[in-house]
Amino acid sequence: MRVIYYIRIMRWIFWFFVVNVVSFVALMKGLIGDGNMFVGAFIAFAAWGLFLRAIFASQENKRKMKNREQMIDEYLRQQLRK
Fold it and tell me: How many domains in the chain?
């Protein structure tokens, strides 16, 4: 069980660094490049938004799964009592 936990943590750490690199490159391209700065800022904030959305969606799915398991356990207990 701990191995799965560590694999999940390593996956999020990997994506954290990927988002950092994408954000840094986008912001530097926006600041140094000859184009509009807002495009780089938009890409950087969009990358962070998608990263945070994935984290919160994962936590929401875990919460829903835990509630579903509790409902099934309660249902099976009631069936066993009959």
Answer: 1
Cα dihedral 19, 20, 21, 25 sign: positive
Distance, CA of 55 to CA of 57 (rounded, Å): 6
Say what the pTM is: 0.66
pLDDT band at 30 (very low <50, low <70, confident <90, very high): confident
| C-beta of residue 38 within 8 angstroms of C-beta of residue 59 | no
Two tokens at 55? Answer: 């984290």
**In which domain, by residue range, is 18 found?**
2-81
pLDDT in tens, 71-82: 999 999 888 887
